[in-house]
Structures are given as C-alpha cells and as structure tokens.
Amino acid sequence: MTKTFEPLWWSLFSAGGVVAALFLPIMILLSGIGMPLEWFGVAGDVFAYERVRGLVTHPIVQIFLFVLISLPLFHAAHRIHAALSDPWLKHMESFLSILLYGGAFAGTILTAVILLQF
Amino acid sequence: MNDKTMQFEVLRYRPEQEDVPSSQTYTVPFREDWVILDALNFIKDEQDGTLSYRWSCRMGVCGSCGVMVNGVPKLTCGTFLKDYYPNKIRIEPLDGFPVERDLITHMDDFMKKLHSVKPWLIRNEGEEKPIEEGEYLQTPTELYAYKQYSMCINCMLCYAACPITALEPSFIGPAAIALAQRYNMDSRDQGRDERQKIIMEHDGIWECTFVGECSVVCPKDVDPAGAIQRAKLNGTIDWFKQWILPRKGGIR
Amino acid sequence: MKLYYRPVQNAWWLKRQPYVLFIVRELTSLFVGLYCLLLLVTIYSLGQGEKSYDGMLIFLKSGPIIFLHVVALIFTVYHSITWFNLTPKAIVIPFGEKRLPDIFIAGSNYVAWVILSGIVYWLIVRF
What global pTM score does this model have? Predict the structure, then answer.
C-alpha cells in the first residue's frame, strides 16, 4: 500500500506518549522527590538495595520497566526529531534520524540486556 | 459626524516599483459596525485606489478575503474594528504564501494541493449507479460522519496559521487533508485507497506535528487538525493491517 | 510574475503564545527521554551491586538533582495534560447519531492516570 515507514515511527511515538503520560509523573514523584526527601510516605527503607532488587527480579516488574523505558525513548526520539529538523536543522534531518532513532533503539536493547541480568 | 479614527498599517508590495514589501499607514474612520473589509474598501475608494486585496461575498462563505491581522490569520469580512479600537491594526498578506501584489497571495500551489487529493466521489469499476436507479441514499448519521469537513471555504487561514506550511512548502496542508477526509468518510465514496496514496506520503499527514492552530483559526469549525490526527490513526491501523492481513484486491 | 517570498525567521515561534506553548510541549519529550535514561542508569547500578546502587542513591539525593526532577515533573505533567486533552481529536467513537463527547475520551485518560498512578504507588511504597 504505502512505501513509507512513517506509521511505524508514529505508533512507537504514540505508544511512548501514552506510557509517558500515564506513568512518568508518578515515577518521577516517587524516585526523584519522594525518595530523597522521604515525602509522600516514602520511608527510608522503601528504596533500600535489598527491597528494590527484590522488586526488579519480579518478571512483571521487569516487563513494566522495559515498556516504561523503551517506548518513551522512541516517543522522545520522534518528537525531538520533528521539533528540530523541520524548523531549524532541515539539512541534518537524516543524521538526526540515525542519531535519535538509533539511540532509542540502542536504549531499548540496553534496557532488555540490563533487566535480564536480574 | 463622529470623528473617531483608526490607524491601518498595511504591507504593500508593488513588483513594478519595488523588490521588497514596505509598510504604508492609512487613517480610516472608526464605525461600530465596520469590519476590516469596510475599512479596506474605504481606503481604496477614498484614499488610495492602488491598494489591492481579494474579497467577494463579504459574509464569510467565499473564502477570498483572508489576511494577517496583527499576526493572526483572519477574514477581513468577519473581523470587527471595534475589537481593536483604538489601537493600530497591522494588515499583511497570509503567511506562508508568496506575495503577488499588496495583500494578494499566490495560491497556485494551494489549488494544486487541493486537486491532488481527488476531491470528488470515486466509485469502483462497475459500481456507478445509473440514473434510472435513483440517488445514493444517505442517513443523517452517514451525513454527520463527513459534514464538518465539507464546510471548508478554502480560505487558507489554516495554511497561514500552520508553521509547517511556511517551513516546508511541499506539505500538503490542513485544508487538503480535511478535504480528503470529507470524501473518505462519505458513505457514497469508494476512493479511500486512491487518496491514501497521496496523503500517506511523507509530504502528507506525516509532516504535521499537531500544533493545532489550523483548527483554532478556521472560521467554519472544520477542525482540520482533528481530520489529520484521525487520518494518522486510521492510516497507521491500515499500515499494520497490510503486513498482517494482506488485502486480496477488495475495497478497504 | 515577480513573486515575493517572505523568509521565515528562526524566532517564528516567539511571535505568538500558541506557538510558544507548542514548543514547550515538544520540549517535554526531552525530559521524558532524560528521565528514562536516568532510570536505566539507576537499574544498571542496581545490577552492579549494593555499593554502586547506594552511590546512585547519594547522587539522586543531591540538591541539584532533586531540583531537576521537580523541573522534569512539571514538564511531564504538562505532557500528560496536553496529551490527554488531544486524544479526542484522534479517537472518534460513533455514539448514537453523532459521536461520543470529547470529555468522555479525555476524561477516561485522566481516570486511568489516577488509577495507574495509585497502582504504581502501591507497588513501590507498600508492596
């Protein structure tokens, strides 16, 4: 039907956008503000090594973390590419594609590799 | 005789005497019921017959009179002086289009883009209803499905509001995509596959980054931004379907 | 015909508020990407043992990093709100003679946001 692969990038962008919109605020709130300041009921032991390690070994948590990291990376790659290449860096469009989508791809592989260690 | 006035700063361009546009300021009477078109006609009739601009119906249905008013795309026939009085109004030709003269933009590309989406009912080979069989009947629900997109008056305000059309002249643009959707969603039409070939290209819907200003400025509530996002979603679903379930030559 | 092509300035987006907000919205993706990478680094440090993980926690507890998280939170919440509010444009569900009102489509996203955030909170803090 169509020779372009745009729909693929757009679906990854959209899926990543949904995951980021639904999960990132609470994750940032807890890991970046709750944990250091012990706010929002985050006691000192919540992010302790043994406990977190136990959580991350759970297969469902691993799948959650994989989706949580990989899809938003593609979302960011697509959006940054669109925001940069049309207005200002049109001449670098192909280079930006390789850099950004390649980076997202690499990040996805890395996430899988790191999670599988647990 | 009320002597309230307003200043109009108009961007002029007379190719026979200048290489670059320049501003000219006019003082026009302020009347409560005047729109910008009235002021332009006053200028042309009483002060400067050389001022050139498009207009026709003066009631917001022909799509001729689009200009930039203080940086915002508007129809001159629908923009009231009293909403700006007593401040100066700056009038420029619609953004994103080459200028032919004064406020007149070159719209050939726009017309080509509209034409490229095949804006007519397409029937499959052998499925054209002969006259004797009567009209194609349509329920109110079927009409509702595309009616909004049929209200476009081709005024080009959406193109002027879209940053992508200025940055990427090959982008097919909001009105063209809304027009394609108007036919794609018409129950009498069978030409979606043909239109997909045009709008699913890189210069089609995928150039759009959903700024959304096109729908904000549209004087007829066509919501081209919505038409484009729906096209992205439907086009993506079709794209995945083609890999998973290849079509056997039937209608979509 | 001697057409005049008006050049587009680099600061085009500063001319009107809707364009500024659009760029801010696109910028949220930078914080989305950066946080995900930071999360990946944190998980990596977890895999490298207790010492490296504790080092990571000390890094995350530093003032500037907490501040960056606050900024990232503001941007990601802005992403969430703009994203949910725009979903009715893409997802049109026929309802009766017309279509399901926008508020149901956007609203269901907000409801999911609250519920899922609650589940994640429970998982991390209470489980």
Answer: 0.93
